[in-house]
Input
Amino acid sequence: MTDETTHALALVPEDLPTPENFLRPHRIVMLLLLAGLVVAIAVFMRWDWLPRYLPWLGSGTLVSLAMLFSTAILGFLLAVPLGLVQVTGPWFLKVLARLFCTVIRGTPLLLQLWLLYYGLGSLFPQFPWIRHSFLWPYLREAWPYGVAALTLSFAAYEGEVMRGAFAGVPQGELEAARAYGMGRWTMFRRIWLPRAVHRALPTLNGETVLQLKSTPLVATITVVDVYAVISKVRQETYLTYEPLLLLALIYMCLTGILVVAFRYFENRIPTRGA
Amino acid sequence: MAADSFINWSLLALAAPGWGGVLLQGFLHSIEIAVGGYALGLLLGVGGAFGKLYGGPVLRDLLECYTTIVRAVPELVLILLLYYAGTDFLNQFLGAMGIATVDISGLAAGIFVIGVVQGAYSTEVLRGAIKAVPAGQIEAARAYGMSPGKVLRRITLPAMLPYAIPGLANLWLIATKDTALLAVVGFSELTLVTRQAAGTTKAYLLFFCAAGALYLVLTLVSNLFIGIIERHARRGFAERR
Output
């Protein structure tokens, strides 16, 4: 996925309105209309179920966030070697990494999730040594499969980004590092990786926002995230729109917070410019 | 435990006891929805991009809301919302018009849902591409007295295409994969029929891998065509590094 596509799919810091030019006459009218809509939704729709489910909604949101951050971090750790071997590795590792990225990026995440959960989940109990291993109590639960699927997917998309970022670091900087007598590992740690991450940062942040949008899929394998809580509300209250609107609002808030946080971090990194 | 006890290839047979035919049918549905949704998304995207670039302040802000909401809310949630809201709204509208309510086909609803989501993405892609067209070309067209429609048809759309194609190609691949999300609302596309087949026969790995192979083939074949189209659209450009 190119940087522009990530930009088109995920909200990025540049999309946030700036305070200076935000309040113009037509915007004030639109905001008033929006406020009227919100009031109408609050008054005319049913929200009496909300207090009862609030604790579950809170814990569900935490599960969603835990899914997001754990898989983004694990996925990034996996993406660095995936990107690196595609730039400088031996040919068989290159082929393997390319194959991995192509397969994961070429199939829907939902299918991968179900393949891991239903497929591997039905396969594991047939091996006695897995059932007797210390991992078995975890493998019987749903969340490890969710984490695995989301991690692999993030790693595949991010691996492509890191490949481009590693390849884009100017050769002269690496030569300079070598000329200073740095070993391969020192050069990687001090020059190559930081420069590549710096280059990839905007895309990385966009991909993380996209990852947040993928997390509700884990609800389909019985992980109780915020989406699953809302599904439960819908089943128990027979309401269609209210819980879904609330869910959309929750995700919009989460995305907004994420984007604002990324803008803060991106601004803290010094870049050369006028 | 022998390996062949896992793999029972006859389950994939096309005829009735095997599920191959059902899978292919689901695959066909997936492609239909992807094509329809992508086309609808492109229409919305062209309109949205021009509205965002040349529209009045109110239209611009409304379109900004549309793209922001779609880009901030998970596709799964949007699909549920649009699926219920879209079918409900249409039936209420028909009821108000005095026409009997219709049972909206899953196919039409799926195309609508994927189209609305894709529309926001292609709005952003196309807006970026149109902005990449040198302003002088559009000014020259205006100076020749072309009407806005003609400028669009003869200059802006053809000139922006090379810039838009990589993004649009990615959107097509995303559309094919987003169809899998319709499994959650119960539309029998490839992923859902695969799960049904796997659940019935208990051959989970076999069926999910088979479906994965089908999706992968679709992606790889698409990539082949994308490569050809991209080369065609970029002829005359300096070689990209």
